[in-house]
């Protein structure tokens, strides 16, 4: 009876053990620490199974393991039994599974997760998120590039999950997103306390070519280089240095972009308010050249007030020359105020106006008719340019080169560099033009030769050459040519060979051209005029007298 009861109890216990499921491999189970030895914790996971776990798996990065006998922990069951008959378990894998479940929920709800940076890898860092390892790209560490990440290592701090893939075991996190969010909240709070026109203190954080960024206590404002001072500032480092505390005025706040524009010059009086009183039009002042461009030079009259000397107002004589060849940066010059536009904050200045007009000086020193001497600077198709005093030129037109030669022929006698003498014939100060004449220095042989000779006059010329087409004659040194058709009234007498060199012949003047310097004479015109005069005086051929009778009477009357 007793044996029978014992067998029934054994069968019941055996049946009970069959009904209890052995935990599946690859699942997380609960266990109890029953001993700690040789750097390992021995854990009873039930089901008459025990396993060992290294103590380091119970420690967070940078911390000592916190585990004691009797503690209940969750572990990952890798295998039910190994070669030694022990269960293969892992606290780290359990934490990872637990962490993935937690992180997936946080990722879905866009919540922050806590973690600690514990290693450096190519392109960034590794982060422990309480059992799961994530990748932190270098660009997501901070809002600005971080050169030394040492102070951040092992420090528990919040991160934002950007991407995760459980199947591949990939998690990408960002610390920068947390900082930007916090920064945006702080920025919004600071901006909310600022107003345009407010004067605040700030610290210069960064300097660029176009300005400086000033920290206003959690939010940066841009102090543009044009708002640093009323005067021209070439680079912000001339005025500011990093770390310097400055007093600035809030010029503008963009509520949408949270951008703040700052100004320093607004805290000073505007020098343009008194420009018209200090620099009246026509007044001359000393200034300093601050900038040179292709179209002129900027001259500072006082701090904050600059004027432009246009290239056309720089020199009386140097045309089409780059301003840099006339003035240099930082040079002190005398300038005249030509125009002021306070609305546009512009002052037009003149450099040449502070010097006397060289054409006026020349006109005073060399009146019309006076003689000058100069070097041939240039030869053109219409005349010579002669270099004069004060870098000005005078021009000798082709028609003023010689009395006897055509201009095209006369100009061949001159070369660049020749020193010539000429007479001043005209000075036009407004047009900046000086007219000269070389031939005016010599007597006009043509005018002297034909002095008193008019059209219709009868003069005596001497024959100097006999040609087929006529004869060449001379009168007071002036040559003239009588064509065959003008040698006589009658065609039969229009023969050049009936004249000889040295003969003296009376001719009638038909033309006196001072421009071409030609004297036109004709024997035929003289004979016709004499015939007409004889007819009028001694009778008419219509009355029955022959032309021979009339001419005979005229000749007899002259005797």
Please characterize this protein's 3D structure.
The chain has 9 helices and 30 strands. The protein is of the alpha+beta class and 559 residues long. It has a 5-stranded antiparallel β-sheet with strand order 3-2-1-4-5. It has a 5-stranded antiparallel β-sheet with strand order 8-7-6-9-10. A 5-stranded mixed β-barrel has the order 11-12-13-15-14. Strand 9 and strand 10 form a beta hairpin. The longest helix is centred in the first third of the chain and has 18 residues. It starts with a helix and ends with a helix. The model has no long low-confidence stretch (mean pLDDT 81).
Quickly list its features:
five-stranded antiparallel sheet, alpha+beta, about 40% strand, rod-shaped, single chain
- Tell me what portion of residues adopts beta-strand conformation: 35-45%
Please tally the β strands and state the result: 30
- Net shape: rod-shaped
Number of helices: 9
Can you give the helix content as a percent range? 10-25%
Major sheet: arrangement of strands: 3-2-1-4-5
Structural class, please?
alpha+beta
Distance between the termini: 210 Å
* Biggest β-sheet strands, sense, barrel: 5 strands, antiparallel
Which spans of ≥5 residues are poorly predicted at pLDDT below 50? none
């Amino acid at each position: 009876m007793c044996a029978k009861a014992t067998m029934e109890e054994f069968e019941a216990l055996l049946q009970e053990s069959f009904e209890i499921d052995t935990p599946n491999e690859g699942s997380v189970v609960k266990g109890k620490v029953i001993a700690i030895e040789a750097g390992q914790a021995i854990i009873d996971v039930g089901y008459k199974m025990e396993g060992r776990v290294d103590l380091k798996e119970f420690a967070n990065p940078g911390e000592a393991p916190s585990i004691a006998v009797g503690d209940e922990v969750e572990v990952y069951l890798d295998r039910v039994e190994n070669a030694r008959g022990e269960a293969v378990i892992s606290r780290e894998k359990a934490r990872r599974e637990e962490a993935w479940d937690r992180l997936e929920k946080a990722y879905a709800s866009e919540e922050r997760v806590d973690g600690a940076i514990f290693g450096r890898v190519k392109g960034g860092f590794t982060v422990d998120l309480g059992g799961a390892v994530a990748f932190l790209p270098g660009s997501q560490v901070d809002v600005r590039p971080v050169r030394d990440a040492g102070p951040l290592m092992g420090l528990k701090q919040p991160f934002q999950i950007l991407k995760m893939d459980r199947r591949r075991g990939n998690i990408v996190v960002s610390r920068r997103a947390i900082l930007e969010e916090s920064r945006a909240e702080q920025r919004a709070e600071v901006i909310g306390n600022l107003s345009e026109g407010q004067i605040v203190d700030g610290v210069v954080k960064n300097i660029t070519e176009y300005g400086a960024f000033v920290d206003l206590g959690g939010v940066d404002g841009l102090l543009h280089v044009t708002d640093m001072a009323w005067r021209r500032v070439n680079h912000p480092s001339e005025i500011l240095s990093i770390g310097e505390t400055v007093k600035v005025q809030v010029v503008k706040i963009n509520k949408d972009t949270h951008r703040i524009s700052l100004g320093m010059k607004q805290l000073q009086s505007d020098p343009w308010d008194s420009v018209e009183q200090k620099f009246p039009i026509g007044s001359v002042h000393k200034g300093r050249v601050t900038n040179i461009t292709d179209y002129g030079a900027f001259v500072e009259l006082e701090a904050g007030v600059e004027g432009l000397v246009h290239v056309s107002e720089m020199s009386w004589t140097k045309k089409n020359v780059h301003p840099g060849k006339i003035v240099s940066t930082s040079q002190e010059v005398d300038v005249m105020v030509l125009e002021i536009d306070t609305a546009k904050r512009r002052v037009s200045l003149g450099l040449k106006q502070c010097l006397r007009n060289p054409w006026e000086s020349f006109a005073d020193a060399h009146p019309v008719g006076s003689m000058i001497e100069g070097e041939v600077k240039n030869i053109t198709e219409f005349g010579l340019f002669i270099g004069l005093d004060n870098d000005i030129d005078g021009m000798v037109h082709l028609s003023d080169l010689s009395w006897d030669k055509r201009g095209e022929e006369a100009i061949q006698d001159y070369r660049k560099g020749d020193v010539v003498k000429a007479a001043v014939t005209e000075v036009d100060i407004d047009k900046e033009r000086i007219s000269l004449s070389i031939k005016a220095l010599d007597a006009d042989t043509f005018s002297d030769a034909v002095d008193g000779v008019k059209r219709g006059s009868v003069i005596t010329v001497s024959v100097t050459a006999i040609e087929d087409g006529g004869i060449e004659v001379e009168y007071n040194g002036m040559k003239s040519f009588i064509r065959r058709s003008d040698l006589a009234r009658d065609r039969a007498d229009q023969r050049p060979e009936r004249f000889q060199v040295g003969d003296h012949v009376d001719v009638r003047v038909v033309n006196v051209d001072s421009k071409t310097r030609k004297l036109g004479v004709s024997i035929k015109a003289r004979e016709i005029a004499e015939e007409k005069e004889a007819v009028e005086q001694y009778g008419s051929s219509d009355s029955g007298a022959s032309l021979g009778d009339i001419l005979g009477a005229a000749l007899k009357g002259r005797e």
